[in-house]
Specification:
The complex is a heterodimer.
Chain A: E1 4-7, E2 10-13, E3 19-25, E4 31-37, E5 43-51, E6 54-57, E7 64-66, E8 76-78, E9 87-94, E10 103-104, E11 108-112
Chain B: E1 5-7, E2 10-14, E3 19-24, E4 32-37, E5 44-49, E6 55-58, E7 61-65, E8 71-76, E9 85-92, E10 96-98, E11 102-107
Parallel strand pairs in B: 2-11
Antiparallel strand pairs in B: 1-3, 3-8, 4-5, 4-9, 6-7, 7-8, 9-10, 9-11
Classes of the chains: A mainly beta, B mainly beta.
C-alpha cells in the first residue's frame, strides 16, 4: 500500500542521548515535513525539505537535525540539545515542492526518561 | 509560521446534531485544509480548498474558503459517534500553519 511510514511508534530515551526517528514514503512526493505536537496544541513545524539534498528550518528547529539523501526518506534526529523533547512527532509529505495537500504518517511518541 | 485562531476549542453534542467550526488568520492563504485526528494517530486530510469563496463537500462534511482568504469554515451535518476526534484547520504558507484544534465529542 502507498503511504507514509514512521518508526518506531514508541521510543524512550535517556537524557543526554540522541535518537533518530524514521520517515519513509512511497508516494513519490517531492516535499517532506516534520512536525511536533504537544498535548492540546496544534502542529509546529520543525524542518521541511522540498528536494533531495536540501532542507530548511521550520519554526522550532533548535535541537533537531535532518537529512534528505533519498527522495523517499527524511529521518529526524532529536539531539541532546533539545531541552524538552517529550512529544508526538509527525512526518508528512506533499506531491509538489510548492506544497498543496499534505499527508501524514501515524506518528512517533518520544518520551525522555 | 503563525498559529491560526480556531474555534470553538471543544464541542459536546448529541448524535444527529449539526456542527460548525471556524478558523481565522491575520495572513492571507492560498490553500486551506481541514484534518481530523484521532488519539495517537496522524491527522487525516478531510477537505482541501484552493480558491477564495470555494465551497467543497465530502459526504456530510462541507468546508468553505473565506472570501477574504483569511478564514475558513467546516460544517458537519447529522453527526454520528464516529465523528469524535480533533479537527484541525491549516493554511498554507511555505508550510502549513495549524490551528489548535476543535475537540468534538458526540453522544449517542
Amino acid at each position: 500500500d502507498g503511504g507514509i511510514t514512521q518508526s518506531p511508534k514508541y521510543l524512550f530515551r535517556k537524557e543526554g542521548q540522541n535518537v533518530t526517528l524514521s520517515c519513509e514514503q512511497n508516494l513519490n512526493h517531492d516535499a517532506m515535513y516534520w512536525y511536533r505536537q504537544d498535548p492540546g496544541q496544534g502542529l509546529r513545524l520543525i524542518y521541511y525539505s522540498q528536494i533531495v539534498n536540501d532542507f530548511q528550518k521550520g519554526d522550532i528547529a533548535e535541537g533537531y537535525s535532518v537529512s534528505r539523501e533519498k527522495k523517499e526518506s527524511f529521518p529526524l534526529t532529536v539531539t541532546s540539545a533539545q531541552k524538552n523533547p517529550t512529544a508526538f512527532y509527525l512526518c508528512a509529505s506533499s506531491p509538489t515542492r510548492t506544497g498543496g495537500e499534505e499527508y501524514f504518517g501515524e506518528g512517533s511518541w518520544l518520551t525522555v526518561v | 509560521g503563525q498559529q491560526l485562531n480556531q474555534s470553538p476549542q471543544s464541542m459536546f453534542i448529541q448524535e444527529g446534531e449539526d456542527v460548525s467550526m471556524n478558523c481565522t488568520s491575520s495572513s492571507i492563504f492560498n490553500t486551506w485544509l481541514w484534518y481530523k485526528q484521532e488519539p495517537g494517530e496522524g491527522p487525516v486530510l478531510l477537505i482541501a480548498l484552493y480558491k477564495a469563496g470555494e465551497l467543497t463537500s465530502n459526504g456530510r462534511l462541507t468546508a468553505q474558503f473565506g472570501i477574504t482568504r483569511k478564514d475558513s469554515f467546516l460544517n458537519i451535518s447529522a453527526s454520528i459517534p464516529s465523528d469524535v476526534g480533533i479537527y484541525f484547520c491549516a493554511g498554507r504558507g511555505y508550510a502549513l500553519n495549524f490551528g489548535k484544534g476543535t475537540s468534538l465529542l458526540v453522544t449517542p
